Amino acid sequence: MADFSNETIEAAMLAALDEARSAAGTGEYPYGAVIVAQNGDIVARAQDRVVRDNDPTSHAEIEAVKAAIRIVGPDLEGHALVSNVEACAMCSTAAWWARVDLVAYGISQADLFAIRPDSMDEAGLSIAEAQAPFSRKMEIRPDILREDAEVLWTRHRE
Predict the structure, then answer these.
(1) 28 an active-site residue?
(2) Is 1 buried (19+), middle (13-18) or exposed (0-12) by CB count in 10 A?
(3) What is the dihedral of CA 61, 149, 113, 68, to 10 degrees?
(4) Residue among 28, 61, 63, 86 flagged as catalytic
(5) Which pairing describes strands 79-85 and 42-47: parallel, antiparallel, or unpaired?
(6) Predicted local confidence at residue 37, as pLDDT
(7) What does the pLDDT average to over 30-57?
């Protein structure tokens, strides 16, 4: 399993937050995600496209994983998925299948629901719960730039 420095993950979170702000500017909820290599290179950036694509599976994390796979290939070992909000069960499972080593996020699903109950209408499995049946585990790193992620959601209005 790759070892990611805190500096690498925080820099990636800043990029994910930029994607989330951009998503909000297009009428989406502010979800943003990036795939970052262990050396700090951001391989893919993405934001929610659920409204724009009229596709409930177009979550920022799914879009980032798919973009990274197009660049790196189907094995994202040595890479991390970084998003401003904890990945849902669908997104964390996609990251698991792509062999992502680490998933980092700013605020948990539970925290987001407490801030904006209208922002989530999906199965509320945490990343730990979603990967529980599997023997291989991704590292989970919560609360990365947490305050910035909270502020983004506190200020966001439809």
Answers:
(1) no
(2) exposed
(3) 0
(4) 61
(5) unpaired
(6) 98
(7) 96
